[in-house]
TrEMBL record:
NCBIfam families: NuoG (TIGR01973)
UniProt record, GO biological process: ATP synthesis coupled electron transport
Organism for this UniProt entry: Truepera radiovictrix (strain DSM 17093 / CIP 108686 / LMG 22925 / RQ-24)
Protein's UniProt name: NADH-quinone oxidoreductase
InterPro entries for this protein: 2Fe-2S_ferredoxin-like_sf, 2Fe-2S_ferredoxin-type, Asp_de-COase-like_dom_sf, Mopterin_OxRdtase, Mopterin_OxRdtase_4Fe-4S_dom, NADH_UbQ_OxRdtase_75kDa_su_CS, NADH_UbQ_OxRdtase_ferredoxin, NADH_UbQ_OxRdtase_Gsu
Keyword Metal-binding assigned: yes
Bias-annotated ranges (Low complexity): 678-706
Any one annotated GO CC term: membrane
Pfam families in UniProt: Fer2_4, Fer4_NDSU1, Fer4_Nqo3, Molybdopterin, NADH-G_4Fe-4S_3
GO MF terms, alphabetically ordered: 2 iron, 2 sulfur cluster binding; 4 iron, 4 sulfur cluster binding; metal ion binding; NADH dehydrogenase (ubiquinone) activity; oxidoreductase activity, acting on NAD(P)H; quinone binding
Role noted for this protein: NDH-1 shuttles electrons from NADH, via FMN and iron-sulfur (Fe-S) centers, to quinones in the respiratory chain. Couples the redox reaction to proton translocation (for every two electrons transferred, four hydrogen ions are translocated across the cytoplasmic membrane), and thus conserves the redox energy in a proton gradient.
Domain of life: Bacteria
Length: 824
């Protein structure tokens, strides 16, 4: 459609909003209520424009023309909100006339009537839309002579979000966000008129995506409680990078000041996370600055770890390796190591005649012959999700909910993402019937699904085989439900099957899922356990024997940011090694056994590349954090290479990228901010892997007798909670979920603290009774580097009483024991 904005002629798609036409023409108009990826509502009335359009003669169906023969423009009697007005052929939009300027200034004056002059102390100062728009479009002088409205200024919506009600301008962005993006309707307007305020009926904000409202709030009303009053916007060093927290590859901005990470915000990636991140990604950074952070190398001398230089540590390692010439050597990385660190690990292992491996690594390959992207998910008309994406890859949860809207992702305009997408409506109905969710227990995404299948834990292969055969009796599921699911997938134009951690823990289940996908023509998305699981597998950081056997078969071992010693069986073997080099950021059970401890950078301090679950290569960039002498694994290899007197591949990020660029055919240093999609070819068969205790994580066949513990994915990175006190305060201790009758049989009550022992590990937890669970199944969140799946031989005991105060302890009394959470 042809449109004229002031003096600029445009040709735009039908359905484009007038406000987007204004920005596409290179002009500006103020607005507060509109927000990309959300419905336009015209609440703030700041984007007013003078709008007109030609009319057709009813008799001739031709344009009514003026004296010059041009179509005559008929203006609307009142100024129009450009965010809720769709363009039409021949439309004229005026945003520069004095009439428009006066109206915009008048609306700005109304907006500011009750707004406090908090700019000198407001966290939003320097990045405030109201501040900017008032300067650009306001009168500059206040005529308001009365007392302003006074409301609560420090209202804690949750442990993580603070609301200053005086600053709220009632734009309704936060309310619409919860309704339209995560689908958690937890905020709304209370009262009316000048007494209106934002509030919640329930205590807290029961959603894992609450922090996004602090990004979209146009004023300083909604604030990140963890960084409030920590600095002004211009005082932060802003670093765009890729989240190290999960396999989505979500774009984030890390704001650091004086060597500390103060806050993390969502950054836009239109192909991955849009403008949203989950709370664990946003608030889970506090561990980086924990007081027990390792910042200098340590070498064991006379039975004690003592500080040393990198050169001294490398020389110690060289001497030990010299005495072990020909002995088997292993190098293991955590699965959120960068591609460049993977190259360094392979180079070191090859130089020492050993193997490199990453962990955790599923039993099945993450590389699929028919991979799905986030856009495929968002445009799918039939989704079959097996697992719990809300806990595994929260970005995927939101993209699934995009699909339920039935609206394709918007096309980019000259100014980027549309400001007002008129296809989106407030409280628009969701197409729940296209979503089927299956899991061994009821997951949070199930309440948005048209169909939920609860199957016995460990029977994922039987589930897919049952859908293929239309027979679910062995699973306790009605056959007609499985047949209907297969028919929906077959009839769909863009079906997608999502495979979570429970499926990937079994090569047989994954193979059955691939057969189903091939039969119905579906694409497959596999949810890797960590930020670079896909990339490390694709670049060959794998060993034939698998993780546990590599550890057991080595006499010298390099362990990077893993804690295998938290497993009792592996701890005994590690204690007998001739050389144990641990590359770690914090003290762990494994550093206690190490001969050398090398300080490691965290994911926020690295330069490198991640490959997300789509096969998208994404840049990782370092924030200016005070990590002391910490290095990533390329730094480890550089120091060792100098000690060995050789130049190893991967001795620096640049060196590793030369190797990678040659293999990939593109330059990793020149990646687009939204990444480069280049899925790898699927392997001929699944990759073998073993869990931390050495047992292959297959869970097929008959369910074992006795109580069973299912380690489940966890949004909150368990094992780091002790170093994230603010996140810990918000989410509490990890729960052990079990049926009320199962709890009663163990004489346990809801809320009671217990110690869970199973499979060589011990964990603290809090009992949470859940009547929806089978009586023989308990659920416990896995640690962030621990495989999920069934564990048998489980014991649950009451936690010992905490240690009494010293001055209250009777003379001669035995001190009570205390059980601590094992951290990774």
């Amino acid at each position: 459609m042809k449109v004229r904005v002031n003096d600029v002629e445009l040709d735009l798609e039908p359905g484009t909003s007038a406000i987007d036409a204004v920005f596409a023409a290179g002009y500006d108009v103020p607005y507060f209520c509109s927000q990309e990826y959300m419905s336009p509502i015209g609440a703030c009335r700041l984007c007013l424009g003078k709008i007109g359009a030609p009319r057709k003669d009813r008799d001739t169906n031709d344009w009514i023309r003026d004296e010059s023969g041009e179509p005559k423009i008929f203006y609307f009697p009142n100024l129009m909100a450009t965010c809720t007005t769709a363009i039409m052929e021949g439309m004229v939009i005026d945003t520069l006339s004095q009439e428009v300027k006066r109206a915009q200034a008048g609306m700005m004056e109304f907006t500011l009537i009750n707004h406090p002059l908090d700019c000198p102390v407001c966290d939003k100062g320097g990045a405030c839309e109201l501040q900017d728009r008032a300067y650009e479009y306001g009168e500059g002088v206040s005529r308001f002579q009365f007392d302003k409205r006074h409301q609560e200024k420090h209202h804690a919506l949750s442990e993580l979000i603070t609301l200053d009600r005086e600053r709220c301008i009632h734009c309704k962005r936060c309310v619409r966000y919860f309704e339209e993006v995560p689908g958690d309707e937890v905020l709304d307007f209370m009262e009316r008129g000048g007494h209106t305020y934002i509030g919640t009926v329930d205590e807290g904000l029961p959603s894992p995506f609450t922090g996004n409202i602090t990004d979209i709030c146009p004023v300083g009303a909604l604030l990140d409680a963890t960084s409030r009053f920590r600095g002004r916007n211009w005082e932060y060093d802003h670093t765009r990078t890729t989240s190290p927290d999960d396999a989505s590859g979500a774009a984030i901005t890390v704001d650091a000041r004086t060597g500390r990470i103060e806050r993390i915000k969502a950054a836009r990636n239109t192909q991955v996370n849009l403008d949203w991140i989950d709370d664990s990604t946003r608030f889970g950074h506090e561990y980086v600055d924990a007081p027990d952070r390792l910042k200098t190398p340590l070498v064991r001398r006379d039975g004690r770890l003592v500080p040393a230089s990198w050169e001294e540590a490398a020389a110690f390692i060289r001497e030990r390796l010299g005495a072990l010439a020909g002995a088997p050597v292993g190098v293991v990385l955590r699965a959120d190591a960068t591609l460049e660190e993977g190259v360094a690990a392979r180079a070191l292992a090859a130089h020492l005649g050993g193997h490199a491996e990453h962990f955790p690594r599923p039993a099945a390959s993450l590389i699929s012959p028919n991979p799905a992207t986030f856009t495929d998910v968002a445009t799918s008309d039939a989704l079959f999700v097996v697992g719990d994406p809300t806990e595994e890859v929260p970005t995927l949860d939101l993209r699934i909910k995009d699909a339920l809207k039935g609206v394709a992702p918007p096309k980019l305009l000259p100014h980027g993402v549309p400001i007002a997408d008129l296809r989106l409506k407030e409280r628009m109905p969701r197409k729940r019937e296209i979503l089927t969710v299956a899991a061994p227990y009821r997951v949070s995404l199930a309440r948005h699904a048209g169909e939920t299948l609860i199957y016995p834990a460990g029977q994922e292969a039987a589930l897919f085989e049952g859908v293929l055969a239309g027979d679910g009796e062995a699973l306790g599921l009605e056959p007609e439900r499985l047949r209907a699911l297969k028919e929906r997938l077959e009839a769909a134009q863009n079906p997608v099957i999502v495979l979570g951690a429970f499926v990937l823990a079994s090569a047989r289940a994954t193979a059955a899922a691939q057969r189903l996908a091939a039969a119905v023509g579906a694409k497959v998305m596999k949810l890797g356990p960590m930020a670079n699981s896909y990339g490390l597998e694709a670049t060959g950081v794998t060993s034939p024997a698998g993780y546990a056997e590599l550890l057991r078969g080595s006499r010298a071992l390099f362990v990077s940011q893993l804690n295998p010693a938290k497993s009792a069986p592996l701890r005994a073997h590690l204690a007998e090694l001739e050389l144990l080099v641990v590359h770690e950021s914090f003290p762990t059970e494994t550093t206690e056994l190490a001969h050398v401890v090398l300080p490691a950078k965290t994911g926020y301090e690295k330069e490198g590349t991640f490959v997300n679950l789509e096969g998208r290569y994404l840049g990782v960039h370092p924030a200016p954090v005070d990590g002391g002498l910490s290095e990533d694994f390329t730094g480890v290899v550089r120091a060792l290479g100098e000690a060995f007197g050789t130049r190893l591949d991967g001795r620096s990020v640049r060196s590793a990228r030369r190797v990678l660029n040659k293999a990939l055919g593109f330059d990793l240093a020149a990646l687009d901010p939204e990444g480069h999609l280049a899925p790898s070819e699927a392997p001929a068969g699944g990759a073998a892997a073993e869990d931390a205790e050495g047992a292959t994580p297959e869970a097929e066949g008959a369910a074992p007798a006795g109580p069973r513990l299912l380690l489940t994915p966890s949004l909150i990175k368990l094992g780091r909670l002790s170093r994230n006190p603010k996140l810990h305060a918000a989410y509490g201790d990890p729960p052990l979920r079990l049926h009320p009758r199962a709890a009663a049989a163990r004489s346990l009550t809801d809320g009671e603290r217990v110690v869970v022992r199973a499979g060589g590990f011990s964990r603290d937890a809090v009992v949470r009774c859940d009547a929806d669970l089978p009586e023989d199944l308990m659920l416990l969140g896995a640690l962030f580097d621990q495989p999920v799946g069934l564990v048998t031989d489980v014991s649950v005991e009451r936690a010992p009483e905490p240690l009494p105060l010293v001055d209250a302890e009777p003379v001669g009394a035995e001190p009570a024991g205390a059980t601590e959470e094992i951290t990774a």
